[in-house]
Amino acid sequence: MCRRRLLKPSPASSGNSPEPACKSKGTDRMILGIDLGTTKTAAVLYDPATPAESRAESAVHHAALPAAPGRAEQDMETLVESVRKLLNRFSVAKLAGVEAVGLTGQMHSILLRNETECSPVITWQDRRASEAGELKLLQTASGLPLADGFGGTTLGFLRRSGELARWRHAATPAGFLAMRLTGKSRAGIDPSFAASWGIYDRTSSGWNRAALAALGIPEQLLPAPCPFGTLVGRTAGFAPLPDGIPVFTPLGDNQASIAGSSEDPEREVFVTIGTGAQLSIVLTAAEAAAAPAAPGVELRPYPGNRLLAVTAPLCGGRAWSWLGKSVNGFLSALGLPLFPENELLDRLDVLASEAAPESGIRVAPSFLGERSTPERRGSIGGITLDNFTLPNLAAALADGIVRQLAEPMPPELLRSRRRIAGSGNALRLCASLRARLEEQLELPLEIRETKEEAAAGAAKYAHSCLKSKP
Fold first, then answer.
1. pLDDT for 161 beyond 50
2. Which of 84, 157, 168, 392 has the most neighbouring CB atoms within 10 Å?
C-alpha cells in the first residue's frame, strides 16, 4: 500500500450486522443525500413536498494521495471531513429537520481496516493489477470478468502480493462513511455496491464463494450483503447532524443518479458523457429474464427487483479533450500560436457539425483501454488521400464516442424507450455529440439539469424507504 493514515473510528456499536429494516415513517420533511464522488463531495437537502426548494452543496475534496504509476488512492479521513464541511454550510435549523440520510458514492472502490488503522481508498481508476501483469491471472482463477479497479480485483491482487493479511475488514468509501455517521463497527453492503466489486453472485444475493476461494479472499473480510434499503443505524456523534436520524446502506452512484434525474426510469435511456461515458437502461424483471447476453453490457442490480443494463467505456469527454490537445500539440510543433482550450473545443464542435456525412473515417476512442481489456488501444481507420480533414476527424470522433456506448446494447432493449435523459458536461457542451446520440439511438434527447443528481437520488431513495416501511 502506498500510504496509510491512522483514523479515529467512532465507538463501535453492540452489533456488527445492519439492522434489518427501517421502522420510521416519512413525514415529508427534509431528507439528506450525500455523494462521495471521485473528485468532489456533494450534499443535497431534499424537500419531498417542494422539490424545487431543495438545496445542493458540493466541493472538490482534494483527497487524492501521491501514488506510484498505475495506482489511484485517496485518503478516507479527508473524504469524511469534506462531508462535515459541506454539512456546516447548512443551517442548524435545516439539519434539525432531517428525517433520514441516504448515501452514495464512487462504485468499485475499496478500503481496508484493522483494529488500529485504515488503508487508503483504492479507487476504480487503479490499474495496479494490469500494470503488474496480474489481471488475466485473476480473471482466469476466478472465472469472472474482473476489471482493473474492481474491489474484487484489488483484493485478489493484495492477496497475491501478501498485503492482505494485515487487514480485518473491507468497505466501500460510502460504507465507511455510514459507519462514521452511526458509530457502527461494521455496515452491510447492498447489491449495487456488492456487484461493483465483481465478486457478487446475483442469483444467491451473496458473495461468489467459489471465486473467493479461488482468489484466496476470506469471506469474513467482506461486509455482509444485505437487501436494498437496509438500515445501517442512526446518527450518533457526527456533528453537525443531530443524533437519531436513520441512515441507510449506500446505493451505487449509477443507480442513485438515475433515481435523482428520472420519474419514469423504465421508459428512458440514461446517458452520461463527462470524462468517461455511461449508457444505462432500467430493465423490469421480465425484460431482464428475456435479455440476451451481450459482450460489453454489464447487468447491475437496481432497486425494485430490477436490473440495470450498462455500457461504460472509459473514454468519453476525455477523448474529445484529447483531440483539442492534439491539435494544439501540432500547432506547437510548428511554432504557431495555440488556441485557448475551451475556444478550440467549441471550434472543433462546429467543424464536426458541418462535416460531410459518411466521410469513411472511423475512430475507435479506446485510448485508455477498456475495463475488461486494458491492453486495448484507440485507432483511426478508413483514411484516404482526400478525407483526412479536421472536420471529418472531429465528426468521426464524436460518432465513435457515441458508437462505443450504443453498439453493445441489444436493440430490443431500446424499443420501449421514449427518450434519452442526458447529463455530463461533455454532452451539455458538445452539439455534435448530442446530434450523434439522437441519430444512433433514434430517440429525442433531454438534457437533465438536476443539481448533484447522485446525491439527490440518494435522498429520494432514502425518502422512499421511509414511506414504504411500517
1. yes
2. 157
Q: How far apart are CA 202 and CA 30, in angstroms?
A: 33
Read off the pLDDT of each residue in 115-139 and give the average, rounded to a whole number.
95
Q: What is the DSSP string of 392-433?
A: HHHHHHHHHHHHHHHTTS-GGGTTT--EEEEESHHHHH-HHH
Q: What is the pTM of this model?
A: 0.85
CB 412 within 8 A of CB 288: no
Q: Which residues pair with 36 in a beta bridge?
A: 41, 105
Q: 305 and 410: one domain?
A: yes
Helix (H) or strand (E) holding 391: helix 390-406
> How many domains is the chain partitioned into structurally?
2
Same domain, 149 and 284: no
Enter the C-alpha cell of residue 276: 468517461
Cα 333 to chain centroid distance, Å, stands at 38
Shared domain for 321 and 337, answered yes or no, is yes
Cβ of 139: how many Cβ atoms within 10 Å?
A: 18
- Find the helix packing angle between 390-406 and 431-441, rounded to 10°: 50
CA count, 13 A, side-chain hemisphere, 450:
27
Dist. CA 359–CA 395, nearest whole Å? 9
Contact (Cβ atoms closer than 8 angstroms) between residue 102 and residue 33 = yes
Q: In which band, very low, low, confident or very high, does the pLDDT at 469 lie, cut at 50, 70 and 90?
A: low
